[in-house]
Design brief:
Structural class: mainly alpha
Number of helices: 4
Number of strands: 2
Strand order of the largest sheet: 1-2
Distance between the termini: 24 Å
Oligomer: single chain
Helix content: 40-55%
Radius of gyration: 13 Å
Strand content: 5-15%
Number of domains: 1
């Protein structure tokens, strides 16, 4: 089961968090994509797995981005709720 989770693609919530964090840090787009490539060897954010996206988010938080955690709401896909 863990193997399946590691191959699931990035979620909309993760993509939103990555973009929000990069804006918060005033990162240039090319720097963000260089970071993504260095962590995952992938050129497109949409090709990331959930695990790889998590690593990118953790790196952005380590650089000073807000560490508010979001999760996709089961009732309304694409909407976000603070996790407890």
């Amino acid at each position: 089961m863990k193997e399946k989770a590691s191959k699931e693609l990035v979620t909309k919530a993760q993509i939103t968090k990555i973009w929000a964090s990069s804006r918060e840090l005033n990162l240039q787009k090319n720097y963000l994509y260089d970071m993504i490539f260095s962590l995952s060897e992938k050129e497109s954010m949409r090709d990331l797995t959930k695990v790889e996206a998590h690593k990118v988010i953790e790196k952005l938080v380590g650089l000073g981005a807000s560490c508010i955690k979001f999760r996709e709401s089961l009732n309304s896909p694409g909407k976000f709720a603070k996790s407890h």
